[in-house]
Fold this sequence. Notes:
Blueprint: H1 10-18, H2 22-47, H3 51-54, E1 57-61, E2 67-69, H4 70-84, E3 89-94, E4 101-102, E5 109-117, E6 128-136, E7 150-156, E8 160-165, E9 171-175, E10 181-183, E11 196-198, H5 209-220, E12 231-232, H6 238-248, E13 251-254, H7 269-282, E14 286-288, E15 308-311, H8 313-323
Parallel strand pairs: 3-5, 11-12, 11-13
Antiparallel strand pairs: 1-2, 3-4, 5-6, 6-7, 7-8, 8-9, 9-10, 13-15, 14-15
The protein binds 2,5-anhydro-1,6-di-O-phosphono-D-glucitol and manganese (II) ion (2 copies).
Amino acid sequence: RGERCLMSNLSSVLACEAARGPLHAAAAAAVAALAGAATSIAGLIRHQGDAAGLGAVRGTENADGDTQKALDVMADDIIASALGKVDAVASYLSEEQDAAIPLHAGGSVIVASDPLDGSSNIDTNVSIGTIFSVLPAAGGVLQPGRNQIAAGFFVYGPQTTLLVSFGGPVIALQLGENGQFHDMGWQVRIPDVTSEFAINASNQRHWHKDVAAYIGDCLAGKDGPRGRNFNMRWVGSLVADGWRIFRRGGIFLYPADRREGYGAGRLRLVYEANPVAFLVEAAGGKAIDGAVPILDLAPADLHARVPLVFGSAKEVDEFAAYGS
Ligand code: AHG
Ligand code: MN
Ligand code: MN
């Protein structure tokens, strides 16, 4: 790493990572396969956008009890088949599969993925994406996010993009006409301070006291205890709300609430919160479950949910103080 590492496109980033040792080479091979899969998924979305197709309900529920859409299943198939061609990948963990899919007995890494994030936005022409986490196979299926070798997410939006980190800086890349992901040329750094929050406000009546008090104070704006006005943005795709926060700061909250089944929020630790938290910390932000850093949590289950609050470091601290 360092001077001689070209970061101008994904191939050069991966070549550089691969040179760091066998585990990194394995992670780089996995990310290369994921980039190929994401390119296919982006193509599907671009060319086959009729609502009855990709957004059609499949009539089945995934491992987490969510209704599957056609594109959820297609994206999962594309990723499973891409990873199946990489000898270094021992197994594939997916939101759309009950249990880990074993791939290569001698593989040194595990890939966990939310193949299609933002399912409710599929047929609305709003950004959706693919989230992934690469872990050492030696650690087994359930390991804290701190162990991740690499993590990232693709966004299928006005641009097809990738945010990725191998533990070093977060790199923002965009898929070009030539089929290559090239560096977008901005430094991915989440500003410490923000005046923009993202939460599904329709759940307000179900919120616990700390969340209600924090959002109430944000909404009180200049006249309230925060002494400044806040703006709200909620896309409803974690990848899109996340991308915005990496670009210009912000705080995202999907807290636990009083609804049945939301005692630990909605988002999943292994393939949503962990990869996002890995990127957030690498970009100077914070990601917590309300109190504890997401990356320090040990998943109890492959599909375990976790309350997720992440973004600008000072604002995440500000929120955490409401709970103490
Ligand atoms: P998925 O499409 O993988 O199930 O994830 C959807 C997630 C996430 O993208 C978003 O932040 C959140 O669900 C939205 O949930 P609500 O519809 O409850 O707001
Ligand atoms: Mn998701
Ligand atoms: Mn999903």
